[in-house]
Amino acid sequence: MALAGKTILLIEDDIDFATFVKNTLAEQNAQVIHINHPNKVLGALQKAVPDLILLDLNFHYQNDQGELASDRGEIVLRLRQGHPALKDIPLIVCSSENLGGTVVGVEAIGANDFLAKPTSSKVLLHKILSFLQ
Fold first, then answer.
1. Does the reported pTM lie above 0.70?
2. DSSP strand E in 43-126: where?
């Protein structure tokens, strides 16, 4: 299997989409490290350097005061640009947001590719394999 032994860092707050990704990639014998907020990226990277990053751009969560808050995943793109070791890791933005619907739209914010949500396992694997083969 082409993804056997590969590590994918999934930065995603939607549990249904995260489960879909984890199940799809488990069938390919890939390891998925799932974190639910971009602020947890550095901690995840201390444990393992991924072969590819899947990044959601919109995060909704409860803050320390219990209030509903939101954040944007661009913090990960800025982190990636500032760390030479991370620059070479392919990053695919996963979003239900259109972003112009093109790779050009995500390249403008520092990503390598765009995956529209929802998606199929076939499309997910095609996108990942285009960077990891």
1. yes
2. 52-56, 58-62, 68-72, 91-95, 113-116
